[in-house]
Amino acid sequence: MTNTENGLDLARRLLRIGFGLMAFLAGLDKFFNLLTNWDMYLAPWMANLLPFSSATFFGVIGVIEMAAGLLVLTQWTRLGAYIVSAWLLAIALQLVSTGMFYDLAVRDIVLALGAFTLAKLTEWRAAVPAAR
């Protein structure tokens, strides 16, 4: 591997750990609310559409986030990274729809770009014979 390839592989590994743990831990926290009270981020229009409580909704969300995090951390990094990227964009749209939390929406859009970059770096690594 060249120095450039080593640097790209290091970036991919760091993004993999970061996004995998972020998604998994955020999902896990949906059951404990230690990081924040997640209910405050749910748009009222969305809460009104739910056929169940917001606690149940966030439990489902938590399971999905933990699964996406595990995908990123395992051999399915590329798939997990695309899921995390799309998920973060959906969260950003939902946050904007509250009429608040624009700062968090911008942050989540940038994180979505990072997760997309992880997916692309994972594709690159799979195509580089020396990286295997």
Summarize the entry for a quick read.
This protein has 132 residues and is mainly alpha-helical. The chain has helices spanning 3-29, 44-49, 54-73, 77-97, 102-127.
Number of domains: 1
Helix- and strand-based class?
Answer: mainly alpha
Described by strand count, sense and barrel closure, the largest sheet is:
none
Instruction: Give me the strand/helix succession.
Output: HHHHH
From the alpha-carbon coordinates, what is the Rg to the nearest angstrom?
16 Å
Instruction: Measure the end-to-end span.
Output: 10 Å
Characterize the overall form.
elongated
Percent in helix: over 70%
Number of helices: 5
Strands, total number: 0
The amount of beta strand, in percent, is: under 5%
**Stretches with pLDDT under 50, minimum 5 residues:** none
Rounded average pLDDT: 94
